[in-house]
Design brief:
Chain A: This is Acyl carrier protein. The complex is a heterodimer of chains A (85) and B (423). Chain A has 85 residues and is mostly helical. Chain A contains five helices and no strands. In chain A, helix 1 crosses helix 3 and helix 1 crosses helix 5. Chain B is built from 16 helices and 15 strands. Chain B folds into two domains: 249 residues, Thiolase/Chalcone synthase (Peroxisomal Thiolase, Chain A, domain 1), CATH 3.40.47; 157 residues, Thiolase/Chalcone synthase (Peroxisomal Thiolase, Chain A, domain 1). Classes of the chains: A mainly alpha (85), B alpha/beta (423).
């Protein structure tokens, strides 16, 4: 099991191609919002979810995807799904 | 009062060249872009050759961001965007800032967009994997996809649309853009069209037995418009784009003016009088040409060059007869006539715009490109017009008026009259 910092590091590599605000990306915290801070196009949240599924071999259901709007919530969801495995 | 409309930007992605200056060289040399296609051979096509523009990864990275290239699998989008952006830059126009450019619009047509992406999606959907399609299937496969990509990249705030009229699409797009400027609804319109390449686009034509199958070992000789040995059209792909602009706007910007659009006409033969889903009603073809001449306000004797549809099927003599009848000119009095398809194949929905770019280059640079592979002219054609009216080599010559026409499935026609710009 990855630590929280390791999870965030993996998540950052997944999110990187979709980021439109590099400065905000350099200062990512758990509170960082994908759309408002990183200026990610909302349509790309779907692609991020798919990439996360592949990287962690988990499935993110629709309800979880709707909640996955910040780095922190993404980490929570990944942790939870990994625990359920 | 009707606005005068001029062409101030050109962009092209063709099987024999990418970019306007290289394309101009290629068409003057008579360079063929038709090559053997191993995938068609593997798939047991009768016709195993085609025209595919030599787009490299480097070119893609020049026009698209990494994010846009992520999961991009639509050759039509790539061709359309590269040609569209080239035309825009060639016109010396800039990208809009925060506020859209309300005076600039786009009409970028296609027959079918992103067929490879669509195939990918169909497989996933059928495997119950719809949730894994990703976010870009729609934008890569919607008919207006290229307009949408270009609209965002350039910040255009006027009409953004896509037309579709089979092989007449590109010429029709140009005339739609022209109409929008003539009426003052827009100052500038990016007009163009594209076609995907590959087995899923071309297969239907192979099944119809309208593609040549005797030239798989000699692809460059396969596309033979006007020839006695023409045996079908060679499938092609790519995109062409032209910036149309009101004369006022072009003069205000001090833009290079490549040509003026004098007018044109689109119509349909109603699939009557010999016309069908796949064959043109000859009366409608003649009417389309005559109406175009009439709207342009020229005399038939003014036409120097006909940039024909001329696909290299047995219908070529019928097309020439249509021009002879419509213009009432024949023998040595007939204008020069050539077919770009001899070099690039039939680029389907992209044909009209790629060929229009070629016609504009002829006017601007003073040449008539050769119609290659026509060394054995069809006897029915030489019975109507003088053989020297079909250039086998490039002719260097100042020309004033080109009539450009395309005809498509559904019995649809489009003809535009272009002229060298004279203030």
């Amino acid at each position: 099991m990855q630590t929280k910092d390791e999870l965030i590091a993996t998540l950052k590599t997944i999110v990187k191609p979709y980021v439109q605000d590099e400065q905000a990306f350099a200062n990512v915290t758990e509170k960082t919002d994908f759309i408002n801070d990183l200026k990610i196009n909302s349509a790309n949240l779907v692609d991020i979810a798919l990439d996360v599924e592949e990287a962690f071999d988990i499935e993110i259901d629709n309800a979880s995807m709707e909640r996955m709007l910040t780095v922190g919530s993404a980490v929570d969801i990944i942790t939870q799904k990994l625990a359920e495995k | 009062m009707r606005k005068r409309v001029v062409i101030t930007g050109l962009g092209v992605v063709a099987p024999n060249a990418i970019g306007t200056s290289e394309f101009s060289k290629a068409i003057q040399e008579g360079r063929s872009g038709i090559t053997f296609q191993p995938d068609l051979a593997d798939l047991k096509f009768s016709c195993q050759i085609g025209g595919i523009p030599p787009i490299t990864e480097e070119i893609k990275h020049q026009y698209f961001s990494d994010l846009q290239l992520h999961q991009l699998n639509s050759s039509g989008v790539v061709y359309g965007v590269v040609a569209g952006i080239e035309a825009w830059q060639n016109a010396g126009l800039s990208v809009a800032g925060e506020e859209p450019d309300w005076d600039s619009g786009i009409v970028f047509g296609t027959g079918m967009l992103g067929v490879d992406k669509f195939r990918e999606a169909i497989y996933k959907v059928d495997q119950g994997q719809v949730r894994r399609l990703g976010s870009t299937v729609v934008i890569q496969t919607m008919t207006s996809g290229v307009s949408a990509y270009l609209g965002g990249m350039l910040g255009c705030g006027n009409q953004l649309t896509a037309n579709s009229s089979a092989c007449a699409t590109g010429t029709e797009a140009l005339l739609m853009a022209y109409d929008r400027i003539v009426t003052g609804s827009a100052k500038r319109m990016l007009a163009g069209s594209c076609s995907d390449h590959g087995p899923y686009i071309w297969g239907g034509f192979d099944a119809m037995r309208v593609l040549p199958y005797k030239y798989n070992q000699s692809p460059k000789r396969a596309s033979r418009p006007l020839s006695a040995t023409a045996s079908g059209f060679v499938p092609g792909s790519g995109a062409g784009a032209l910036v149309l602009e009101s004369l006022e706007s072009a003069l205000e910007r001090n833009a290079t003016i490549y040509a003026e659009v004098l007018g044109g006409h689109v119509n349909s033969g109603g699939q009557r009088n010999g016309g069908s889903m796949t064959a043109p009603n000859s009366m409608a073809v003649q009417r389309c040409i005559q109406k175009a001449v009439e709207q342009a306000g020229i005399q038939v004797s003014d036409i120097d060059v006909i940039d024909g549809h001329l696909t290299a099927t047995m219908k070529d003599p019928d097309e020439v007869r249509g021009w002879v009848n419509a213009l009432q000119r024949s023998g040595a009095d007939f204008p020069y006539i050539n077919s770009l398809k001899s070099m690039v194949g039939h680029c389907l929905s992209a044909a009209g715009s790629i060929e229009s770019v070629a016609a504009v280059l002829e006017l601007h640079q003073g040449f008539i490109y050769p119609s290659i592979n026509a060394e054995d002219l069809h006897p029915d054609i030489t019975a109507m017009i003088a053989p020297e009216k079909i250039p086998q080599q490039r002719i260097r010559k100042d020309i004033n008026v080109v009539a450009k026409a395309n005809f498509g499935f559904g019995d649809v026609n489009a003809c535009v009259i272009l002229t060298k710009f004279q203030p």
